[in-house]
Amino acid sequence: MSMLKKSLTTVALAGALLGGTFVTPAAAADPNTCTKGNVCGWSGANRTGTRTVMSVTPGCYPFKTAKSVSNQTSYKIEFWKITPGTGCGVGTKLVTLQPGTYSDNPGTVTGIEVYAK
Predict the structure, then answer these.
(1) Taking CA 104 as the corner, what is the angle to CA 85 and CA 27, rounded to the nearest 5 degrees?
(2) Which domain holds residue 48?
(3) Most buried of 16, 27, 42, 94 (most Cβ within 10 A)?
């Protein structure tokens, strides 16, 4: 085997091996999932559309408008349609999610309240 052919074979093999190193697992790349430790919202029902991902601790937060939500934190979270110009917990409570759960169509979420364990 010529030196050139050996070099090309080595480069091809190295490329194939390295290419597998950078592959992202399908679950991590799926825009319809929410990674552990986060709360997520999607602009569409049934976890479709643009996804928003937040890392939270107990407290109140405005939330980018979402029509489906997932709680993959260790906290209980209430999802609200907040009355404009008011604080947390004022408006319409849409759904309460325990850790590791989701809701595909709770209404239009604009704020969340995260409770300590």
Answers:
(1) 115
(2) 31-115
(3) 42
- Asked if residue 20 is part of any domain, the answer here is no
pLDDT of residue 117: 79
pLDDT per position as a tens digit, 23-69: 333 344 577 899 999 999 999 999 999 999 999 999 999 998 999 99
Judge whether 11 lies within some domain. Answer: no
Q: Are strands 109-115 and 91-97 parallel, antiparallel or unpaired?
A: unpaired
Q: Which CA distances in Å does 16 have to 1, 2, 4, 12, 67? A: 21, 21, 18, 6, 42
Q: What one-letter code names the amino acid at 88?
A: C
The conformation of residue 57, written as its DSSP 8-state character, comes to: -
